[in-house]
Amino acid sequence: MVSTSDRVIECLETKQSFIVEAGAGSGKTRTLVEALAHLLAVEAGRLLSGNQQIVCITYTNVAANEIMSRINRDPLVRVSTIHEFLWSVVRGFQAELRTAIVKTNDAAGSRRIENLDLTDTPIDYWQYPRKWEDGKISHDDVVALSAALFDEYPKLVRLVADRYPIIFVDEYQDTHQSTIKLLLDNMLAGNSERLTVGLFGDHMQRIYNTGVGKVERTELRIIQKTENYRCSIAVIELLNKLRPELQQVPGDTNVQGSVRFVYANSGVRNPVAKIRVKLRAEGWTEQNEKVLMLTRKSIASDLEWRDLLAAYEQRSGFSVDDLMRRDDEFGELFTNIEAMASAFNSGRYGVFLALRAGSSGRITHHSDKKMAAEMIARLNKLRSSATVGEVADYVWSEGLLRKPRRVVSLEERIANGDNPDRAERDNAFLSALRAVPFAQVTSFERYLNSETPFSTNHGVKGEEYENVLVILDDTLWNQYKFEAVLARDTSKTQYQRSLNLLYVSCSRAKRNLHVLVVSPLSKSAIDGAKRIFGGENVSELANM
Ligand SMILES: Nc1ncnc2c1ncn2[C@@H]1O[C@H](COP(=O)(O)OP(=O)(O)OP(=O)(O)O)[C@@H](O)[C@H]1O
C-alpha cells in the first residue's frame, strides 16, 4: 500500500502542491516530519548550494518546538509563524512598506489617520496594536501589507520562491483566510515551477473563528487517510458517530478503551469533584488524566475575573466572545496597560516608551526616568487597588496612553443618544465595566496569555492523553451549544463550531474518555448521547 508519506514525497518530487486532509490521530504531524526528514536526506546539498531553506509555518510555539526537535533543529528548515516569516521577507522593503501603509490609510475612511507622514520613519512590526503614526505595524498588518507588496511587485514573489522553494503549513485550518490567499494566490499562482506549498490539517478541527476551515482548490492535490493511530477502539467508534462522513479505522496497536457520558441534570452539587473521585477509584491519576473544561465560568471564578465577565455578559452573549478575542472597545487599552507596566517593571524601557502615547525619544535624562518611574509606581498601585474606570482615567489624564478611537465612539454614542435603546445598553455596560476592580483585568490578561494551569478545550490539538475528562457547560458562552450537537439540531448557528470542539476534545483520548455535562439537557439531547456513546454508556450523575 502506498503510504501517506510516499504520496507526499511524490508530490514534492513532481513540484505538485498538495493538502494532507485527514482526521484526528491520523499522523499528520508525523507525515509532515517524515516529509521534512526525506527532504533533508535527499535535497540538503541542493538547498545548501542554492542558499535555500524549507519553510514550515506553525501556529503555536509548542508545535514549532515539537517539529524542530524531531528534525534535530536542522537549520535548513525554518520553522516559524507566518508573521515572523513574512516580516523577515518584507522588512527590507521599507520604502515600499511606507507607500503601502499610506495607501491603506488613505482608503480607511473614517478610521483614517489625518496627515499621516512616514517620511524617514522606520517601519517595524511589533506584537501590540498598530501605531502607524510611529511606524509600528501590528500582527494583522504584516499579512495585509505583504499581500499588497506581493501584488504590486511580482518580482519580489519570485525572489522569495527562489529562496524558499517549499512552504509547509501545519494545522492549516486555523490559518487566516488571508494567509491562505496570500500563499496560493499571491505566491503560488504563476510560480508553481519554483514553489511547492503543502498544507497539513483537518477542516473539522478548526476551533478558531478566524481560521479558514475547508480549503478546496484545484491546484492542490488532496491526500487523505483514514487510519487513527492514537485513539482507543471505543473512542474511534465514537468519533465515527460524531463525524459519519469520515469513517476512521484503528492502526495495528490501538487498545480497546472505553467511553462514557454522564449528565448532571438534577441540581447535583460539585459534579466535577464527584466524577473525579469516582474516576480516581477506577485508576485515573493526576499523571494519566487530562481535564478539558469547556466552561469559562468555572475558570473565571477560580481566577477571579467574574465581575469583568459579568459586565460583558450583561451587554450580550457575543460581547463575551469579543472580550476573549480582545476585539471589544477596551481590548487594546487593557493589553497596552498591562504590556506597559510589564515592560517598565522588567526594565525594557524601549518597549515602555514605544507604547507610551506621543513619546518618541529615549529616556536620556535621569529626571525623565524618575518621572516615568513615579508614574508607573502610581499605575502599579492603581492596578492592584483601583477600578477599571480609575485606572483608565489615570492613564489618559497623565498622557500615558491615548484613549482608543473605539472608546471615544462608544462615549459619543452614549452622549448623542441617537438610538436611545442602544445608548442605554452601552451606558449600563460602560458603568459596570468601569466599576470592575482592575486587578481582574490583570488576571484576565494573564489568563489570555495562558500563564494559567487550567486548560480549556482550545489549544489542545496535537496533544494526547491516556484518559480524558471533557466537561461541557452550555450556560455561559453563546458561542457553543453542545446540546444542539447531541440532539443533531443543525439549525443552531453554533452547531458546527460546537461539533468541531467536541470532536477535537474527544479525540485526545488514547484509552478512556469521559464526558460530563453540567448544564441542563433536553430529552432529545440525552437520546442523542445514547446514540453516539451507546445506551449502556450514558447515565445521570445523581443515579450513579
Ligand atoms: N504510521 C504510524 N504508525 C504508528 N503510530 C503512528 C503513526 N502515525 C502516527 N502515529 C502516532 O499516532 C499519534 C497521532 O499522530 P499525530 O499527532 O501525528 O496525528 P495528527 O493527525 O497530527 O493528530 P491531530 O490532528 O489529532 O492532532 C501519535 O502518537 C503518533 O506517534
Automatic annotation (TrEMBL):
Its EC number is 3.6.4.12. Residues 1-245 form the UvrD-like helicase ATP-binding domain. One of its GO terms (molecular function) is hydrolase activity. Transmembrane segments: none annotated. Keywords: ATP-binding, Helicase, Hydrolase, Nucleotide-binding. It holds the Pfam family UvrD-helicase. InterPro entries: DNA_helicase_UvrD/REP, P-loop_NTPase, UvrD-like_ATP-bd. It comes from the Bacteria. GO terms for cellular component: cytosol. It is an enzyme of class 3 (hydrolase). GO terms for biological process: recombinational repair. ATP binds at residues 22-29. The keyword Transcription does not apply. This is ATP-dependent DNA helicase UvrD1. The gene is uvrD11.
